[in-house]
Every structure is written in C-alpha cells, then in structure tokens.
Amino acid sequence: MPLENIRNIVLVLSGKGGVGKSSITTQLALTLSLQGHSVGVLDIDLTGPSIPRFFGIEEAKVRQAPGGWIPVPVHDQQTLPRPLTANTSGNGAASANTDGQEIGALSCMSLGFILANRSDAVIWRGPKKTAMVRQFLTDVLWPPLDFLLIDTPPGTSDEHISLLENLLKQTAAPTSPPNQLAGAVVVTTPQAISISDVKKELNFCRKTGIKVLGVVENMAGFVCPNCSECTNVFSKGGGEVMAREFEVPFLGSVPIDPAFVQLIEEGTRPVYPKGTSVVGREIGTGGGVNGHGDDHERVDLLADKYRDCSLCPLFDAIVGRLVADIRGS
C-alpha cells in the first residue's frame, strides 16, 4: 500500500476559500523539512491546484513507474549552511555555526503536474473527482515520509468525503503505522464571516471523528515592507476565540508579509529594514536571522530563502507545538 511508508498524515482544512490553506500548507512543509523531517505534500484541490506554483515547480511533470506515479521532488535531504549568529564573547564580531543544518527531503503531488495545459479549467462532476482523489491515495509512490500534508479544497465537498473514506480505510489496515492519520490543521482568517464558515469545518471534523490538531489564524495583520510595523487590517483574535469555543488548540496567528509573497511570486530572498525583530530574533537588512544574512553561503533553494523570512520563526513555533501534540497522542 502506498501509504505504508508514511508515519503521520495531516490534513489542512478550511470551510472557506481564500483563507490561505495552500500558503499555510507550504510553510508547514518547509518548516517541517527545515526541522529535519522528510515531508510530502498532496494537493487535492482539483479545480485550483496551486501547490506547484507555491514551491516553484510548475514546469515539472510527474513520472510514471511500475505501480504508480513518482511525486515531484522539491529538494533532497541535505545540509544547508547555517547563518552566522551573534558572538556572545562581547567583541561584537559574528561567529558561524559550522555544523550546518540538516533538512529533510520534500516532494509534492498535484493535478497541476498532470494537466496538459496549466490554464485548463477542470470541469469534472463528483464521481470523476472522487476517482481522482482515490487514485492520488493509491497510486502515488511516496518515499518513506515522516509527514504527509494534504492540501484540501474549501468546504465539505465530494473530495473531502472521498478523501476521508479512503484514508480511514487504508490507515485502519494492520500494516499501517499506529495513529497514522494524525488529524487536521484548520485555517481561518480573523473576520467574523470567515469564522462562521470555518466553524462548519470544525463540526465536520467532529462528526467524522478527525482530531483537530489546532487552528491557525492567517492574515492576522499586515507587515509593512518599509517600517516592519504590523497593522491588523482584518482584525485579529477571532481564530483564537473560535479555538477556545471548540476546545481545540490554537497554534498561532500569521500576518501577511509582502516579502513572503515576493519570495513565492518572484523567487527573491526576503529583505527587511534594519532592526526588524520577530519572536525575539532579529532579521536584518541582508535578510538573514540575527542580521547576518549576507555573511553565510547562499543556496538557491526555496527552503534556504524561507529561513530569511519573518514568518519562519512563527512557523517554527507552530510546527513545534504541532509535532509535540502528534507525538504525545
């Protein structure tokens, strides 16, 4: 069974479109990889497959192999050079951690890799969508993975029902790892209209027996690219209130960062004004953590560029809580 190689399966859900599920999935995957885990991303948003775009691998094609499809690699397991860290000896100089940072392999599967033309509209009825989801779960030859993140479409549609039916069937097999279907991360934005729709998703999880690993509040503020001040243009705190109401963990709030948008759209490394600090970590003009981004060897990998993003420390904390919860269950 293709899912036998996977230790933990995590769904990324939301009852509303446009809340940033694919953005959250991408950053969860990058952060898990940066923490040394091997990661796969399965995109079952069939009518809007955006994962290839987020990882900068739109031109890639899926390869056939005996028994199924080989997912598209984003990067292999490797060692990244560590950024320079502040020297604590008091002389003001910077010193490097020469050990390097081990990152796990990352690969993706999406309908976007299969379509003949990227701009083709997917006009499918429910049975065809159901069959495609089933094929993704049975025919993708994943390498051994610590985590498989499944990016889902909004709502509780045919894709969700097919996904859960097949996942519950496969993960209940005697050969599957224990607690393989770890649960779901639910994404919302702070506005009341979004919260209202996402509550339906939480009720969907309750009725289907899917554990909610936590709620992430996306777009909770806007980080000014000039002064780095965060303004709550869409309000803030609604996701945390909803999590308390449903008695599920609140994983954290994530602001809109134009530097992350530029990283995805143009592939440029994030750069911030001098003195920018996130979660107690200074991010300087060179784009590096602790203000020494220009002093470490640059690697042309999305994961390495993402280390210089202001959202990286936030997701480091979110993923830390997520992994601790999964291991403790």
Automatic annotation (TrEMBL):
InterPro entries: Mrp-like_CS, Mrp/NBP35_ATP-bd, NUBP2/Cfd1_eukaryotes, P-loop_NTPase, YlxH/NBP35
Subcellular localization(s) per the UniProt record: Cytoplasm
Gene3D superfamilies assigned to the protein according to its UniProt record, in alphabetical order: P-loop containing nucleotide triphosphate hydrolases
Gene Ontology annotations for the cellular component aspect, listed alphabetically: cytosol
Main localization (coarse): cytoplasm
Molecular function per GO: 4 iron, 4 sulfur cluster binding; ATP binding; ATP-dependent FeS chaperone activity; hydrolase activity; metal ion binding
Keywords associated with the record: 4Fe-4S, ATP-binding, Cytoplasm, Hydrolase, Iron, Iron-sulfur, Metal-binding, Nucleotide-binding
Binding residues annotated for ATP, in chain numbering: G15, K16, G17, G18, V19, G20, K21, S22
Family annotation (CDD domains): Mrp_NBP35
Residue numbers binding [4Fe-4S] cluster: C224, C227
Cited Pfam families: ParA
One Gene Ontology term from the biological process aspect of the record: iron-sulfur cluster assembly
Entry similarity comment: Belongs to the Mrp/NBP35 ATP-binding proteins family. NUBP2/CFD1 subfamily.
Biological role: Component of the cytosolic iron-sulfur (Fe/S) protein assembly (CIA) machinery. Required for maturation of extramitochondrial Fe-S proteins. The NBP35-CFD1 heterotetramer forms a Fe-S scaffold complex, mediating the de novo assembly of an Fe-S cluster and its transfer to target apoproteins.
Name the record gives this protein: P-loop containing nucleoside triphosphate hydrolase protein
Organism: Massariosphaeria phaeospora
